[in-house]
Amino acid sequence: MNQDWIATAATLSQALPYMQRYAGATVVIKLGGHAMGSDEAMISFARDVVLMQQVGLNPVVVHGGGPMINEMLDRLDITSDFVNGKRVTDQATMDVVEMVLSGKVNNRLVQAICDEGGKAVGLSGKDANMIVCDQADPDLGLVGQPADIDITILRDLHAAKAIPVIAPLGMGRAGETFNINGDTVAGAIAGALQADRLLLLTDVAGVKDKSGNVLTEMPPAQIADLIADGTIAGGMIPKTETALDAMDKGVRAVVILDGRAPNACLLELFTDHGAGSLIREPKS
Questions:
Q1: 3-class secondary structure for 94-114?
Q2: Which pLDDT score is estimated for 7?
Q3: In whole angstroms, how far apart are CA 192 and each of 102, 146, 158, 238, 282?
Q4: What domains can you pick out in the chain, each with its CATH number?
Q5: Within 10 A of 142 (CB to CB), how many other CB atoms are there?
Q6: How far apart, in whole angstroms, are the C-alpha atoms of residue 69 and residue 189?
Q7: Which parts of the chain sit beneath pLDDT 70?
Q8: What is the SS3 assignment for 200?
Q9: Predicted local confidence at residue 231, as pLDDT
Q10: Which of 127, 129, 125, 123 is nearest to 106 (CA)?
Q11: Three-class DSSP category at 238
């Protein structure tokens, strides 16, 4: 008998307790723009999400698209200004952001999931007033901070066995469109859904210690100390802050992991070892 077949059957058998554990659970996944760079990576991710739903989970996908936005801004010769490392979003930039996120990136991801046998529905935070925003910082222009989250449409889609795929845009109180950080949207949605897991897929293996080793598990109380001593720095700071905020709103655990790794979500959810850095309260 083919040894690969035997290994596959053994892997499925070992995954059964985890599939039972997560049956009916809601898992919010943030897919970063760098993690969806190739067609192969997109297909692999889509297949994983469809499998998650097939075994009883309720996945919600929130995507980024920074590299694709940068490419389109360069092509249109639109200059971006930055304040403290954050992009200033004027109306011209906002038009491009919305076109790329709600159009090209969202449609590509929805199609990939449908091609793998899933039933995905593309949305932005503007649809059904799902995300109402306040302006995050006047110096940044049309950058929003989620204020009110209405998850009714997400519940309806899950009831219809559909997978929501959300572009990180929101509606202002005066009807304006706001660009929102994708991690922030994923955290806000996960909190509103009381998700069992929030998976932040990025382009690094997880939170690393000062020796470069991945910290596989951290209690929330440790995060502030790791930021204070410089262990957590740069772009990892807002990710861990998103994790803490989501957990404050009721998310059971958050994982920061490398979205470029094959089957990263399945490794995290359905194996003993997991993947990346797990942030959760210590087991009593």
A1: HHHHHHHHHHHHHHHHHHHHH
A2: 66
A3: 22, 11, 15, 19, 23
A4: 20-279 (3.40.1160.10)
A5: 23
A6: 23
A7: 1-11, 15, 33-35, 37, 84-85, 284
A8: strand
A9: 87
A10: 123
A11: helix
